[in-house]
Every structure is written in C-alpha cells, then in structure tokens.
Amino acid sequence: MIRQRPGRAIGVAVAAAACTVSLAACNGPSAAQSATSLLNAGIAAQNSGDNGTASKDYNAVLAIQPKNIYALFNLGDVAQYMGKNTAARSYYFHVLAIDPNYEPALYNLATLEAASNPSVAKSMYLQIIRLSPRDADAHFNLGYVLISLGERAAGKAQLKIAVRLDPRLKAREKGIH
Q: Could you report the per-residue pLDDT of 64-73, keeping only the tens digit for each?
C-alpha cells in the first residue's frame, strides 16, 4: 500500500526568505510582502481545511509571482486532496519544470502515478532517494511500486530499507513475505 504523506501546505518561511533575499525577483518590496502575506494566508486556510480560500490566495500569489513553486505546489496539494488528480498533476509538473528536484512535488506526483503508471512512479521515487537517501517513505513506496512491476526481490529489499530507517513502517508492510 503506497503511503501518502499528509497534505500540508508548504512554503511559509522559505518563500518569505526567498523574497527577502531577492526583492527584485519578487517585483519590489510591496509585491514581495503581498505575495508572502497571500502565501501565508493560503497556508493558514489550507491547514484549517478551507481549500477554496487557500486556492484563491495561492492564485493571487501566482498573479504576482507566476513561478512561485510554493503556491504552485500547494495548489497541486489542494487539488490532490479534492480528488482533482489531473489538475494536481499539472501543478506538480509546473513546479518540476521550474525545479526538477523539488522533492514534495516529486513525491506527491509519484503517489498519483503509482497505480496508473508505476514505471514513472519508480523513476520519481528513485530520484527522491538519490536526493534524500534516508527518506523511509520513498523507499517504502518504491518497494510497493517495484513489487507491482514484478520486481519482487528489489521491492522487498526497499521495504526492508524503509523499515530499518523507520521501524514504525513494519506495521504497514501488509502481505509481503
């Protein structure tokens, strides 16, 4: 069973720091402050379950900063949570076009692809593991994807790595012996 990470809005401090460091890239101080405030408002709304308001706030960020990966990613997260997988994929691919190694987008996209396109999910999980070798969830999910592709021994090896990294995953290892 593919393990999804709980939907959490991402970007509060990181986005603020990015705009503070490079105000010119954020269209000046007032635009940077507006984008940061809108992003923070969207995150607060998303974390409280108000996905409609969160989406409006994230889209407002994109009106100011069209390549804001945090707003794009969070829109994908909202869409995925709401079962709008085509829209979620689109947002995640947009993020990855800006930053091909943005792990949260890789991870969420891999969870979407695991059932319908396991070969794509496999390559994404491998990329995540290259970036973060100690990511137990990525090893765990890769194990299940490999098993679904008929690569049973490699899949079981990944599950063992995942459990070694995070023993709590042992309980989630169902039917794999």
A: 999 999 999 9
